[in-house]
Amino acid sequence: MLNTLLKPVLLLSVVVLALSACGKKEEAPVGAAVEQAVVVKIGAVSPLTGAQSHLGKDIESGIRMAIDEANVSGVTLGGKKVTFELASEDDMADPRTATIVAQKLVDEQIKGVIGHLNSGASIPASRIYSDAGIPQISPASTAVAYTAQGYKTTFRVMTNDAQQGKVLGEFAVKTLGGKSVAIIDDRTAYGQGLADEVAAVVKAAGGSVVAREFTTDKSTDFMAILTAIKGKKPDVIFFGGMDPQGALLVRQMKSLGLSAKLLGGDGLQSSNFLTLAGADAEGTYASSPGQPLALMPGGNEFSEKFNAKHGVIQIYSPYAYDATRAMIDAMKRADSATPANYLPELVKTNFTGVTGPIAFDDKGDILGGAVTVYQAQGGEWVVAK
Amino acid sequence: MDIFLQQLINGLVLGSVYALVALGYTMVYGIMELINFAHGEVTMVGAMVALAVIGAIVASGVGMPVLLVMVCGLAAAVLVCAALGFTIERIAYRPLRNAPRLAPLITAIGISIILQNLAMLIWGRQYITFPPILEIERYNIGGATITSIQILIVLLSAAIMVGLLLLINRTQMGRAMRATAQNRRVAGLMGVNINSVISMTFVLGSILAAVAGVMVCAYYGMAHYYMGFMLGLKAFTAAVLGGIGNVGGAVLGGLLLGVIESLGAGYIGPLTGGFMGSHYQDVFAFMVLILVLVLRPSGLLGERVAERP
């Protein structure tokens, strides 16, 4: 019996050894070519597997582009030529995994982190980076709590939920004329944070929240909660969550004959949402922090470069690109890649990135982050306000 | 009242999907006493293959009737999944047939992870959409809406269950399956070819998974390499709820789970005065499962069987 159990295990370990040997062989020539240069590792963390992996990959590609460009142009820190290296990790959009990979990156002595995507992952991981003194810039997390913890190493280039929720709540009541609003969230730090903010603003603006329903970030069936909402006859349904669920939600709204307008945050404002929801996407409103790609200072140029190398932009790659540039820029000004040395420079960041002016306030939030509301029209996101 | 009816319809449709997948779990368990955790992933592969074929036909611009396109997609999914089921049993379970119970359980989980990652490599991380070829009719029954595809799901899973019951109780193959389920060694001595019966069980289970996968992606309009995981988990719960190993039980369990989830999500909030919201729908479903297992450990329709040596 022991034998039957041992054989596969032995076989497996041989395979694993063989594979890892292959990995090393491939790396060898790269290492030899840049022998003289000092390697600076920059961590990139986002969900690369699971339901949000397309968004995670979007972030990783944005970071990779910034790093590749820096390497091509050549950076010298402290008199030594430097090569930036991407240390990419998968947090599976899961808070627990996020802390594990954060610790792994810290142990690998990375000099800075761009990530994570989900607020629920960014928040627990930020403590680990803070303890190690490693700067973290999130290109996507919008929960207010992320920068409100008092850590000096925590930054973001994305407008936070308080700013976004205010715009969305007022849009629902004033622009859409929604007297009764139903609110659904996916119970993640992002979805819940945004939905709570919208609920508060809707009430303050004179609207009423007639239903408050919940789902998860892995659900596919929303018929039950939509049926419950249908009974309340709301004018507007707000969904705090990501695009796969949003697309299913709008499809199921249509099949139930719900005529309320769907409004969402930046998680819905992706090209993926339009593809997934197809014709049912028509008329959906969704906001996005910052400006549309076409209105971004470097939007067109960026999307050309990005499309040639990595395909379609989902949402976050321009932000990930700017976040990485902000970090490398701070290192250049400090003439050092040591976190303690370049952190004071990172705080003073001030340049015009692809997404707009990049500068941080005293909490690490982006200064003057704009919010734009879009509507899906004929398979495209068109600026609604 | 119309809302209650709508919730009931929602639950029945969701439950029929669970039931279709649960049938595959229960068949394999009934014969092998093995929980085939890769079953959810086989469902996913079925959905992906069907979408790839349907997408290719639609993209090629051949003017085929919608029904024929669907049948082509379904046939491709069934073929691939049948081959997949056969292969999985051959490489992951057969070598471990006499090993401790834990070993095939671990290979099952291994296979499920491998399939997920293979699907991710082949079809990418993107959600894949179902081409908008289906004309979805909406019908009104007493204030509730039901779509043509929902009716199709319910009818199809009912037909498949009846077919499966007939196959197991009325055919030579079914008799061989029942004999193998009762006692593998003795059945072998009586001239039943156990290897082919077990292979056949996996092939049949995988075909059911393929059908379920195609229905799910046609209903929700999209597929994703990760979709098999939660579906598999829910279907497994349904199979246990109904009494694992029992074909009727899988269907009953699936329908019950669907209805409980649906009614739970719709009514927990108002019933508890907002103390518990619709995010407790899964908790509610699993609580029912725990209750059933405490009061009737063999499931609703399961027979009490003595532990086999």
In summary, what is this structure?
The complex is a heterodimer of chains A (385) and B (309). Chain A is of the alpha/beta class and 385 residues long. Chain A is built from twelve helices and 15 strands.
Describe the fold and architecture.
- The complex is a heterodimer of chains A (385) and B (309).
- Chain A has helices at residues 2-33, 53-73, 95-107, 119-132, 161-175, 189-204, 223-230, 243-255, 271-277, 299-310, 317-334, 339-347; strands spanning 38-46, 75-77, 80-90, 112-115, 136-138, 154-156, 180-185, 208-214, 236-240, 261-264, 285-289, 350-352, 357-359, 371-377, 380-383.
- Chain A is α/β, with parallel strands linked by helices.
- Chain A folds into 2 domains: 36-159 and 297-359, Response regulator (Rossmann fold), CATH 3.40.50.2300; 161-289, 3-Layer(aba) Sandwich (Rossmann fold).
- A 7-stranded mixed beta sheet of chain A has the order 8-7-9-10-11-14-15, with helices on both faces.
- The radius of gyration of chain A is 22 Å and the shape is elongated.
- Chain B is 73% helix and 4% strand.
- Chain B has helices at 2-32, 39-60, 66-93, 102-123, 148-170, 172-182, 184-189, 194-220, 227-242, 247-271, 281-295, and strands at residues 128-129, 138-141, 144-147, 222-223.
- In chain B, a hairpin with a 2-residue loop joins strand 2 and strand 3 (144-147).
- In chain B, helix 2 packs across helix 9, helix 9 packs across helix 10 (247-271) and helix 9 runs parallel beside helix 11 (281-295).
- With 309 residues, chain B is mainly alpha-helical.
- The interface between A and B is large, with 40 and 45 residues.
Summary tags:
heterodimer; A: 385 residues; alpha/beta; Rossmann fold; 2 domains; seven-stranded mixed sheet; six-stranded mixed sheet; disordered N terminus; B: 309 residues; mainly alpha; two-stranded antiparallel sheet; two-stranded antiparallel ribbon; 11 helices; 4 strands; globular
